[in-house]
Design a protein that fits this description.
This protein has about 450 residues and is an alpha/beta fold. The chain folds into four domains: about 10-140, NusB-like (N-utilizing Substance Protein B Homolog, Chain A), CATH 1.10.940; about 145-180, no CATH class; about 190-245, Alpha-Beta Plaits (2-Layer Sandwich); about 245-445, Vaccinia Virus protein VP39 (Rossmann fold), CATH 3.40.50.150. It is about 45% helix and about 15% strand. It has helices at about 10-25, 30-40, 45-60, 60-70, 80-95, 105-115, 120-135, 150-155, 160-170, 175-180, 200-210, 235, 250-255, 270-280, 295-305, 350-355, 365-375, 395-405, and strands at about 190, 210-215, 220-225, 240-245, 260-265, 285-290, 310-315, 330-335, 380-390, 410, 415, 420, 425-430, 440-445. Strands 5, 6, 7, 8, 9, 10, 13 and 14 form an eight-stranded mixed beta sheet that branches. A hairpin with a 3-residue loop joins β11 (about 415) and β12 (about 420). α4 crosses α5 (about 80-95) and α6 (about 105-115) runs antiparallel to α7. Bound molecules: S-adenosylmethionine (SAM). The site of S-adenosylmethionine (SAM) has 17 residues, from α14 and β6. Its EC number is 2.1.1.176. One of its GO terms (molecular function) is rRNA methyltransferase activity. Belongs to the class I-like SAM-binding methyltransferase superfamily. RsmB/NOP family. Keywords: Cytoplasm, Methyltransferase, RNA-binding, rRNA processing, S-adenosyl-L-methionine, Transferase.
Length: about 450
């Protein structure tokens, strides 16, 4: 539904509150929630930037903001209603991190929203906590690390304690750099749609619109948007380029489908890699694109339509159930498996608060089943690429090693990203600080 222009649009702060409530309490995805809000309420540039900053900012600093609240409140956090906690986080985020917003505006605007959604007692409480912060901010510095190293690290890096411990035990040497990278705001990367334009032409077109871009040395079809990204969306609507993180462009580039190939994408929605492969194939050949959830199939179809692609046949299917009629029929198979998503904490910050340690156990058996099916679909001499957007040996290296033990008809193939990075045993783990992009894992396997 498009919002009627007769009514004034809600403020960025009010919309940020609603979005954060949906994300933190109903476990909605931040990027989809924001897309939906901005479609329904077409805010002007500064308001839409404030909305995005507030939502992502609060999500990144959530546990630190809660800790500040716990220091200022006479009630324990458990006793504070979720909507009050979110409003307090919004007010505090502005007071702590947005120096361009006067403190009085941060407090008054938060209280104004509170009056509309909660009772007088809560409004008074919110007002008192925010004003308390202004009075006492000098006393609220983080304690010395030695007092409680784990809590300190969790507050410093903005991740739950279990996850900080997890990085430190699984990636000991790299843990600090990984944690630091997840606190950086990621740069927007786009994939040039070579069916409609090329990188130089698009870069020129973007420059004319005031969008500053940078080419990626190891990928001819990727651009990083350095400035003016808000002017990019009309070009995306025209299908000239597609927003995709740099790391996520690697699996399809490694599978490297050619014109006329028959390709299977087993876990395809929303179709970022499916459409990338179709562009590489010059829209010539066939791609079967499966996903478990019927409602996600339209995402693949819509993306293909916008990008001018006609060779994708998307359908709902459980890829963990073998389909013998298609065994040995594909030149190339991509298994971009469902995973714990621990590589994408910088551009999907909500994952760190939603994910629980026990969730990690559910992925390896599913990935094992999917890999075993994937093996059957590849032709002799064909290629299989297995990828995940997580950093977890149990979902990555261990899965591939076990697969190779059980499927001696496959052998790993080495690959590289220009001069940037080389695989080992046909596998590559990309740490988030290496390409200033998501953490990813890719394995390239040849069926002998
Ligand atoms: C990492 S995402 C895929 C992203 C996609 N390849 C892209 O680049 O846009 C994993 C996908 O696997 C799907 N999925 C989960 N279990 C599945 C199953 N058993 N069969 C098919 N798809 C499944 C999820 O719905 C999700 O869309």
């Amino acid at each position: 539904m498009i919002h009627s222009t007769a009514k004034p649009l809600p403020s960025a702060r009010k919309l940020a509150y609603q979005a954060l409530y949906d994300i933190l309490e109903k476990k909605a995805y931040a990027n989809l929630t924001l897309q939906h809000v901005l479609k329904e309420y077409p805010l002007n540039g500064p308001e839409s930037r404030l909305l995005t900053e507030l939502v992502y900012g609060v999500l990144r600093k959530y546990n630190y903001l809660l800790w500040i609240i716990s220091r200022l409140s006479t009630y324990s956090l458990k006793k504070i209603h979720p909507s009050v906690k979110i409003l307090l986080c919004l007010g505090l985020y502005q007071l702590l991190y947005l120096s361009r917003i006067p403190a009085s505006a941060a407090v008054n605007e938060t209280v104004k929203i509170a009056k509309k959604i909660t009772h007088k007692g809560n409004v008074g409480f919110i007002n008192a906590v925010l004003r308390g912060y202004i009075r006492k901010k000098k006393e609220l510095a983080l304690f010395p690390r030695n007092d409680n190293p784990l809590l300190y690290d969790s507050l410093y890096w903005n991740e739950p304690e279990w996850l900080v411990k997890w990085w430190q035990s699984h990636y000991s040497r790299e843990a600090a750099s990984i944690l630091e990278a997840f606190n950086e705001t990621p740069k927007l990367a786009v994939r040039v749609n070579t069916l409609k334009t090329n990188r130089d032409a698009l870069q020129k077109m973007m420059a004319e619109k005031g969008i500053k871009t940078e080419a990626v040395p190891w990928d001819n079809n990727a651009l990083i948007l350095l400035e003016g990204a808000h002017a990019f969306w009309p070009l995306a609507e025209e299908g000239l380029a597609y927003v995709q993180s740099l790391s996520s462009m690697i699996p399809a580039a490694i599978l490297s489908p050619k014109e006329g190939d028959r390709v299977l994408d087993m876990c395809a929605a929303p179709g970022s890699k499916t459409t990338q492969m179709a562009e590489m194939m010059k829209n010539n050949g066939t791609i079967d694109a499966w996903d478990l959830y019927p409602h996600k199939i339209s995402l693949i179809k819509n993306n293909a339509k916008k990008l001018g692609i006609s060779i994708i046949h998307a359908g709902a299917r459980d890829s963990g159930k073998p389909f013998p009629a298609l065994f040995g029929r594909y030149d190339k198979v991509l298994l971009d498996a469902p995973c714990s998503g621990l590589g994408v904490l910088s551009h999907k910050p909500e994952i760190r608060w939603h994910r629980k340690e026990e969730d990690l156990k559910e992925f390896p058996p599913l990935q094992e089943k999917l890999l075993s099916c994937a093996a059957s679909y590849v032709k002799e001499g064909g290629l299989l690429v297995y990828s995940t957007c997580t950093l977890n040996p149990a979902e990555n290296e261990d899965r591939v090693r076990q697969f190779l033990k059980e499927h001696q008809e496959f052998t790993p193939l080495e690959f590289s990203l220009g001069d940037q990075k080389k695989s080992a045993d046909g596998m590559m783990t990309i740490l988030p600080y290496e390409l200033q992009s998501d953490g990813f894992f890719i394995a390239k396997l040849l069926k002998k």
